[in-house]
Amino acid sequence: MYTPDLYKNENPEEIRAFLKENSFGILINQTNEKLWATHIPIELEINAEGKEVLQGHISKLNPQAEGFQENDQVLAVFTGPHSYISSSWYDHENVPTWNYIAVHVYGRIRIVDYETSVEQLKKLVDKYEANSTNPVRVEDLSSKTMREARGIFGFEIEINEIQATKKLSQNRDDSNYKNIISELEKTENPQAIAVAKEMSKCRK
User: Fold this and answer.
1) Pfam family of this protein, just one (predicted)?
2) Which of 4, 62, 167, 177 sits a CA distance of 20 to 30 A from 135?
């Protein structure tokens, strides 16, 4: 991912928090000489060896999995808030741009066994059911329903490299920076407001 030095995020804790908060990602690999991409939850976890890895699952009917045997190199893409930035918000002439936060994780993927896949499913469901009035638990599902779990491949990605971009108008002076935040907040667009919130964190 092309990232000018000014916009590189090299703070491990920030990146870790971002991955946990924006875990619906895009898994990309090469299968049958074509690039394939699948939109799925991909969770940052600690594996049995105590290493940080990415975990997830895809359907056994998804042709993407065929490529894992030929080439285990994959890319997982995670995106956060983003918004158009109008140059009319500056006190000088310039071009419009786009502010955004994104993380690319490169690694090696391997398919895990059924029991491990089920454990991963339990963690995933528990995470997203935590605030439910009547939370679903994988442990409580019938054997008939759990047979559907036989239709997935659970996977684990060994992380080789992380590239993180946080492009939030860092190249603007304080006056223009504050005005961008103000204009974003006026839009009433959830994405724009989220970008304004992130910008406020970066510069008080």
Assistant:
1) FMN_bind_2
2) 62
Alpha-carbon gap, residue 194 to 119, rounded angstroms: 33
Structure-token pair, residue 8: 């590189």
Count CB-CB contacts under 10 A for residue 48: 9
Residue 98 tokens read as: 């786009």
pLDDT score, position 110: 95
Q: Note the pLDDT tens digit of each residue in 50-71.
A: 899 999 999 999 999 889 988 9
Q: H-type helices in the chain, by residue range? A: 12-21, 66-70, 114-129, 143-146, 174-186, 190-202
DSSP 60-77: TT-GGGHHHHH--EEEEE
21-44 pLDDT per residue, tens: 999 999 999 998 899 999 999 999
In 3D space, the residue among 111, 108, 33 whose CA is nearest the CA of residue 65 turns out to be 111
- The residues of the chain scoring below 70 in pLDDT are 204
DSSP label at residue 191:
H
Lookup result for tokens 């239709």 = 151
CA angle 10-14-15, nearest 5°?
70
Structure tokens at 57: 């699952």
DSSP state of 8: B
Which stretches of 23-113 are DSSP H helices?
66-70
